[in-house]
Amino acid sequence: MDFFPIFLKINNKQILVVGGGDVACRKVDLLLKAHANVTVVSPQLHPHLQELLQQQLITHIEQPYQSSQLSGADQVWATTDSAALNHQIYHDANALKIWTNVVDDPTFCDFITPSMVDRSPIQVAISSGGASPVLVRYLRERLETYLPQNLSLLASFSGEQRQRIKQHFTTVDGRRKFWEQFFRLSVVENAHTTEELEVAFQQLLTEKNQCGGSIYLIETGHDPELLSLKALRLMQQSEYVLYHDDVADVFVDLCRRDADRERCDHKNIQALTENLTQQGVRVCILATKDNHRPGIKKYCASHNGIFVPIFG
Q1: 20, 42 contact by CB (below 8 A)
Q2: pLDDT tens for residues 169-191?
Q3: Which of 131, 265, 293, 296 makes a 20 to 30 Å CA pair with 120?
Q4: What pLDDT score was predicted for residue 298?
Q5: 37 pLDDT more than 70
Q6: Residue 218 contacts residue 230 (beta carbons within 8 Å)
């Protein structure tokens, strides 16, 4: 392991960025998101950085780099287009024991920044240690499709309930089981507001029983590329897949690899689904758009299931 993975708190830390071009823009934007105090050293500034300066979001030292500028810095970023200058910055900062990053040059880095999937306060970081940036970008894109867009909402809501939930469950195990049940609720997975989450939260506290399973009705067609990202995510979450004879194998294969699969027809699908959800299983029903049965959709809606139509 060439780099130890870590998340740094840089709120109000003094961060020095040497260089005022495109690369500096990207780094400064990220640093500001983390609420750092950013000072940029450069005779000239990119228009974007100039705009940030006008908004008083950054400080600007309108001079070429000098080692004296490192005084008081908690972290240094070297982003100039001169490798020699970047290396000098690294050695100067290293002598002062200041963590330094020379962008796109891992050999001259005390730390590196990973590719990130940001669902703040949830963050997923991926790194290859600089070995394969393209592969890392590919993995990030895959993760983006798997992680729900309301993950930020769920994380914020659950964090705000930490003290409240302790009043109902005195043990860590009890609280863990409650949250596992809560996050598996269809209404929670599909929530867009705090109010929706609050209703589900109170209802689950009141019931104090084992959470039932979930139902996902995914409409299929002839082209799997017309499936939405949401459909693919739910198919990957499902533990049991029910599908009709007219559903192409390619759609079944896109479901979670270790999920149980069963071919069925409109006569027994409701009975099978009812039995599985009572056991707390997540059930994915694949039904073709061309041969869609309204009764299945109605059944899904009556059980707070999620229906995802195919594009096109």
Answers
A1: yes
A2: 888 878 887 897 898 788 898 89
A3: 131
A4: 81
A5: yes
A6: no
Q: Is the Cβ–Cβ distance between 7 and 29 less than 8 Å?
A: no
Residue 273: how many CB atoms within 10 A of its CB? 24
Instruction: Give the residue among 274, 308, 271, 263 at the shortest CA–CA distance from 289.
Output: 308
pLDDT tens-digit profile of 230-260? 899 889 888 899 998 889 999 999 998 889 9
**DSSP-based three-state secondary structure for 276:** helix
pLDDT for residue 108: 95
Q: Cα 267 from chain centroid?
A: 39
Pairing of strands 122-126, 115-119: antiparallel
Buried b (16+ CB within 10 A) or exposed e, 110-144: bebebbebebeeeebebbbeeeeeeebeebbeeee
Q: What angle do CA 299, 300, 303 make, to 5 degrees?
A: 90
Give the CA radius of gyration of the chain.
26
The amino acid that residue 107 corresponds to is T
CA distance 10 to 283: 43
Classified as helix, coil or strand, 40 is strand
The b-or-e profile of 59-94 (16+ CB within 10 A means b, else e) is ebbeeebeeebbeebebbbbbbeeeebbebbbebbe
In a 13 Å sphere around the CA of 19, the CA atoms on its Cβ side amount to 22
CA atoms lying within 13 Å on the CB side of residue 215: 25
What is the pLDDT, as a whole number, of residue 28? Answer: 98
pLDDT in tens, 84-138: 999 999 999 999 999 999 998 999 999 999 999 988 899 999 999 888 889 999 9
